[in-house]
Each structure stands twice: as C-alpha cells, then as structure tokens.
Write a structure and sequence with these properties.
Mean pLDDT: 93
Shape: globular
Oligomer: single chain
Number of helices: 11
Number of domains: 3
Order of helices and strands: EHEHEHHHEHEEHEEEHEHEEHH
Structural class: alpha+beta
Strand content: 15-25%
Low-confidence stretches: none
CATH class of the largest domain: Alpha Beta
Strand order of the largest sheet: 10-9-8-11-12
Largest sheet: 5 strands, antiparallel
Helix content: 25-40%
Length: 305
C-alpha cells in the first residue's frame, strides 16, 4: 500500500484554510486506499523532517500561503528526495510572487491588469493610479489583505499606515464585471466557474464562509470568452512551469459591451481543497470524485531528485 504523508496547517495567514483542506484530503486518500500519515506543520522545520523519516512514498502538499506554496517546503522535499503533489520550487515561487508572475504572463502575451509595486509612503501620500484601484499583498493568497479603493473612499491613508504585509503592495487597476476561475489538471482545463460573492468582491470571507459566495458552473458567458478563459488558464499554467493541478483566476468586464475584456489576475499552484473550494467542484462537474482527484494528484507527484 502506498504511504502518503499529508502536510497541512502551516504557519501562514492561511493556516485555517490549510487545516480544512488537509482534513478533507486525509479522509479522501484513505477512502482511495492509501496509507495516510497526517502531519500538522508548525514552525519547527526539524520536527517536520523528523515526521517524514522514514520517507513516505509521496507527500500530499495541502499547505497554503507562505512557506507552503512559495517554493520553501518544495525545496525541502526536493532535498529529501520525496515526490510531492503540485508544482515545484520555481513555479511555486513565481506564482506566489504576484509581481514576478505578472511579468511572466506579460512575456507570454497573456491579458493582465495594469499595475505596479508601490511603497507604503507613496500610497499614504497620494493615489498611485486613478481610482478605483486594488491594493494587494504581493506574496499572499486567498485574497488575504486585498483592499479596493473607490471614488470617494477616504481609507487610503489608513490602509497604508496599517499595512502588515511588508513595505510594499501591488496596486492594480480595478476591473469591473464578473469573477471567473478555471481549474487545470496537467494540460487540461476543466471548466469555467463564475463566482458570485455575497460581498462587494470575492474576499477571504466570501471564499471560505458558508454562504459567502455562489458558484455558477459552467459560467453563463459567451462561448468565445469561455473558450478563451480555458486557453489562457492552460497557457498561464505552462508559462509558470506548473505541474499537477492549478487554478487561474480572472476578471471579465462585460459591463460595457459583449464580448468584454478578460483579464488574468493570478494562478494558484495550491488550489483549495475545502468543502467550498472551486477545483474539486469543477472536477466533480466532469464526473471525477474527490477521492479520485486526490489520488490523481498523488499519482502525479514528483520531485527534482
């Protein structure tokens, strides 16, 4: 029987999300017939390495956020020679760094939002671009820390002074319209989902709270845009060098005309696997059960060693 260690929890701002993902994965892998070793990852890396000794046949990486999907734990697993799910060091690091990822997408000719890295004193002093615009951490996921500054909004100084994600932020033009997402498995795009958030935008609570959002699958958009979103998701996956599963997030502005403007926001190399997550929902839409999805990820585990 294949022995699989599930790494979950972690020490990022997304610990609670990772715990939820990991708990779902543990149950699913056992149902799929694997011998599962759960490892709740904390700040002691030595303890994690000890828990991985003797080596399992594979690691299911259910960590989210910094140190879990930014290439850090991937490098440790490469060093130890243990195959692991999802992307490797380079793709993980690139995708987690939103500024670097945008540069990769631009070089690949993919549609991105205008934006730049801004230091907090600059944001405090004045608007760095015409309103409305989005202020987001350059190396967090799950919409952690994302703020929208709109016309008439007086929170800009407060945002700059209370910013807790380093000395800089990525500031981008705000794209009106719909929130879309596309899951990718290997070289295959799964489907396009439209996310209808209960709040003004798809924030952390909308993603993970019960009733926080409604998912429409397949998205009710014109066929050409649907196909384009699928194509761009696979192209972004390839451009970053991802492996296994990823998820590309988009904004689609059809508020003025149809077809409208499709914009790639980011690629998540560790898509959520919680009860409200999008990738498992798309897989199920195509007839793949959650245990089978998790088993596929283990079957495609790899490392540089």
């Amino acid at each position: 029987m294949t022995r699989v260690a599930v790494l979950y929890g972690g020490i990022s701002a997304e610990r609670e999300v990772s715990l939820s993902s990991g708990e779902q994965v543990i149950v699913a892998l056992r149902e799929a017939g694997f011998d599962v070793l759960p490892i709740d990852v904390g700040a002691d890396l030595g303890a994690v390495i000890a828990a991985l000794t003797p080596k399992p046949d594979a690691v299911f990486n259910a960590l989210h956020g910094r140190f879990g999907e930014d290439g850090a734990i991937q490098g440790v697993l490469d060093w130890m020679g243990i195959p692991y799910t999802h992307s490797g060091v380079r793709a993980s690091a690139l995708a987690m760094d939103k500024v670097a990822a945008k540069a990769v997408f631009a070089a690949a000719g993919l549609p991105i939002a205008a934006g730049r890295l801004v230091e907090m004193p600059e944001l405090e002093a004045a608007d760095p671009m015409p309103r409305p615009y989005v202020v987001k951490p350059s190396n967090e996921g799950s919409s952690v820390g994302v703020q929208i500054v709109r016309q008439g909004d007086n929170r800009r100084v407060e945002i700059a002074r209370s910013w807790s994600y380093g000395n800089t932020a990525l500031v981008e033009e705000y794209i009106a319209g719909r929130e879309l997402t596309v899951g990718v498995m290997g070289e295959r795009a799964l489907a396009v989902t439209e996310i209808v958030a209960s709040h003004s935008f798809y924030d952390y609570e909308s993603k993970y709270a019960d009733g926080g959002s409604r998912h429409v699958i397949p998205a009710r958009i014109d066929a050409a845009t649907y196909d384009r979103a699928m194509q761009v998701a696979v192209a972004a996956h390839r451009a970053l060098g991802c492996r296994g599963a990823s998820r590309a997030d988009f904004r689609y502005d059809d508020t003025v005309e149809t077809p409208g403007r499709l914009v790639l926001l980011e690629v998540n190399t560790q898509p959520g696997l919680t009860p409200t997550s999008l990738l498992p929902e798309q897989a199920a839409h195509l007839g793949m059960s959650f245990p089978r999805l998790c088993a596929w990820m283990v079957e495609n585990a790899a490392c540089r060693a």
